[in-house]
């Protein structure tokens, strides 16, 4: 290290000196001394590293260093997982947490989280109870299943079912249903990882009932049908209905397992141009059905296993169940969501479950929301604004190909490039995530709440005023 570099390094203010600064004392009062010290060391360490690597020849002035520390403190004070405003129009955006929950669910979760609960305590008998009892009865009443159990997601549900019912024999499945879901999670690997032997039948585009029948033998332990909820095969295609498969399974004393995935509990075909099978339909024509809670059901991340009691009883005895069990907060939120389905009629459900509301919201409502947001943003004369028509997506591996007509507010900010605008909105306390269309930053009103308009206005004002 030469003398000139040493001289520059000696000019870096000490941690103790900065701690005596009035601005830092104020930060310590707000955030605590430990966080402020960590932030000071981080900023000073960065300055030192830049000097040693020859990236800069001198240090920033003292006020700039203090401002850098302030930014660092504010950044480190924020939790990593936090609320965002979803302006993408993707209703079940996996990266943004999928289904949003109703207010009454949040209230119940707070009550359960803030104290003790009867998670595994039977209030009638005063003895140990089952955590699944809080939701199993509701699932049965809503779906028609004899019994049910829940685990932490649908992938876990499928693995648990196969591990219990098909771990030492052939699992027969159509070649066209060997799907992959997020994170390279593939059905063939699930089957083999649980000890089953994968037996493919039919072709990618066509499978007939006789294809299944020809592969059934004394080694067969289950028939598996996977609903292609995250893609569609169109054209010259043919498949076997669950009714036909269920009859074939009965004739051979085998369970028919259906991985439904999306978990729809209400027939939405009268509201949207799409026919998706409901859980109730699948329960009626199978022995075991698995589905997600945080997709079209509109609840927390869980995997539901519903069906015949004799199979559910076996699943409950599987040691894997304990490793995959859900916690009290998940169960409390799921129970409230299920109570909504059990106690409310269809019209009330579409208004109370956020996912269903977003899926069925009318174009007229969305247009009015876009006009309302535009009016609020027009107060900022440094914004170039317009309303455009486009399409929303469902996302989350649900209702593939469905395009929902929507309205977006398109934004350009004076003196701020579209990339810079997108980046800055992504890095604020409550990040605003949108999409870019023809050099405009766009916000889809289908996934934006009215109470978020003022946040959007304030953040755009901050960006355009700097």
From TrEMBL:
Pfam families xrefs: Se-cys_synth_N, SelA
GO BP field: conversion of seryl-tRNAsec to selenocys-tRNAsec; selenocysteine incorporation
A GO CC term assigned to this protein in UniProt: cytoplasm
Main location: cytoplasm
Pathways per UniProt: Aminoacyl-tRNA biosynthesis; selenocysteinyl-tRNA(Sec) biosynthesis; selenocysteinyl-tRNA(Sec) from L-seryl-tRNA(Sec) (bacterial route): step 1/1
UniProt entry keywords in alphabetical sequence: Cytoplasm, Protein biosynthesis, Pyridoxal phosphate, Selenium, Transferase
Enzyme Commission designation: 2.9.1.1
Localization per record: Cytoplasm
Superkingdom per UniProt: Bacteria
Residues covered by the L-seryl-tRNA selenium transferase N-terminal domain: 9-44
Catalytic activity: L-seryl-tRNA(Sec) + selenophosphate + H(+) = L-selenocysteinyl-tRNA(Sec) + phosphate
Residue positions where N6-(pyridoxal phosphate)lysine is found in the record: 295
GO MF: L-seryl-tRNA(Sec) selenium transferase activity
InterPro entries: PyrdxlP-dep_Trfase, PyrdxlP-dep_Trfase_major, SelA-like, SelA_trans, SelA_trans_N_dom
Enzyme superclass (EC): transferase
Coiled coil: none
Cofactor(s) the protein requires to work: pyridoxal 5'-phosphate
Keyword Protein biosynthesis on entry: yes
NCBIfam families linked: selA (TIGR00474)
Family (UniProt): Belongs to the SelA family.
Its biological purpose: Converts seryl-tRNA(Sec) to selenocysteinyl-tRNA(Sec) required for selenoprotein biosynthesis.
Protein name: L-seryl-tRNA(Sec) selenium transferase
Lineage: Bacteria, Bacillati, Bacillota, Bacilli, Lactobacillales
């Amino acid at each position: 290290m030469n003398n000139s570099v040493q001289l520059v390094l000696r000019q870096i203010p000490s941690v103790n000196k900065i701690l005596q600064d009035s601005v830092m004392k104020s930060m310590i009062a707000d955030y605590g001394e430990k966080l402020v010290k960590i932030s000071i060391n981080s900023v000073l360490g960065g300055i030192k590293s830049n000097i040693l690597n020859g990236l800069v020849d001198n240090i920033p002035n003292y006020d700039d260093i203090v401002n850098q520390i302030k930014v660092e403190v504010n950044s480190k004070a924020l939790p990593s997982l936090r609320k965002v405003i979803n302006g993408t129009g993707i209703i079940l955006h996996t990266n943004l947490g999928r289904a949003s929950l109703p207010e009454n669910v949040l209230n119940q979760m707070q009550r359960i989280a803030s104290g003790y609960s009867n998670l595994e305590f039977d209030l009638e008998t005063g003895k140990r109870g089952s955590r699944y009892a809080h939701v199993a009865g509701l699932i049965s009443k809503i779906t028609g299943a004899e019994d049910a159990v829940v685990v932490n997601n649908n992938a876990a549900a499928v693995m648990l079912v196969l591990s219990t019912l098909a771990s030492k024999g052939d699992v027969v499945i159509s070649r066209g249903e060997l799907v992959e879901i997020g994170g390279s999670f593939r059905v063939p690997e699930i089957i083999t990882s649980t000890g089953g032997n994968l037996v493919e039948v039919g072709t990618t585009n066509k499978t007939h009932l006789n294809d299944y029948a020809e592969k059934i033998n004394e080694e067969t332990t289950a028939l598996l049908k996977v609903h292609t909820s995250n893609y569609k095969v169109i054209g010259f295609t043919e498949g076997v209905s669950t009714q036909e498969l269920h009859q074939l399974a009965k004739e051979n004393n085998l369970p028919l397992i259906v991985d439904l995935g999306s978990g729809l509990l209400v027939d939405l075909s009268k509201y949207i141009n799409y026919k998706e099978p409901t859980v109730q339909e699948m329960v009626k024509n199978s022995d075991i059905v698995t589905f997600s809670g945080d997709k079209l059901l509109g609840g927390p991340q869980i995997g539901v296993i519903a069906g015949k009691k004799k199979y559910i009883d076996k699943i409950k005895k599987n040691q894997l169940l304990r490793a995959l069990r859900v916690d009290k907060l998940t169960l409390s939120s799921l129970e409230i969501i299920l109570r909504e389905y059990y106690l409310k009629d269809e019209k009330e459900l579409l208004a109370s479950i956020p996912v269903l509301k977003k899926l069925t919201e009318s174009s007229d409502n969305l247009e009015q929301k876009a006009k309302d947001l535009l009016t609020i943003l027009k107060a900022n004369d440094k914004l170039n604004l317009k309303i455009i028509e486009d399409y929303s997506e469902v996302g989350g591996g649900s209702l593939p190909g469905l395009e929902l007509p929507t309205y977006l507010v398109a934004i350009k900010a004076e003196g701020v490039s579209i990339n810079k605008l997108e980046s800055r909105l992504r890095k604020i306390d409550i990040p605003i995530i949108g999409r870019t269309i023809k050099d405009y930053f766009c916000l889809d009103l289908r996934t934006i709440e009215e109470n978020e308009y003022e946040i959007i206005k304030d953040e755009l004002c901050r960006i355009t005023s700097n």
